[in-house]
Amino acid sequence: MSKGNGKVQRTNPKIEHLSILESALMNSVLISPDMIGECLFLSPADFYFLSHQHIWQAILDLYGAGDSVDNLTLTDQLRSNGQLEEVGGVARIIELCLDLPGTSFVNVATYARQVKQHSKRRKLGLLGQRLFDVSEDWTVDTEEVLRHAERLVSETVQESSEHEIIDQRSAVESTYIRVEDMVNGGEKPHILSCGLKGLDKLLGGGMGKGRRYTVAGEDKSGKSSALRTFALHLAQQGQRVFWWSGEMMVDDLITFQLLTEKDVTFDLLRYGKLVDDRQFSRFAEACQNKAALPIWYNDVPGLTSMQLQAQVEKTISIAG
Question: Which of the residue ranges 106-110, 196-200, 263-267 has the most confident prediction, judged by mean pLDDT?
Answer without folding.
Answer: 263-267
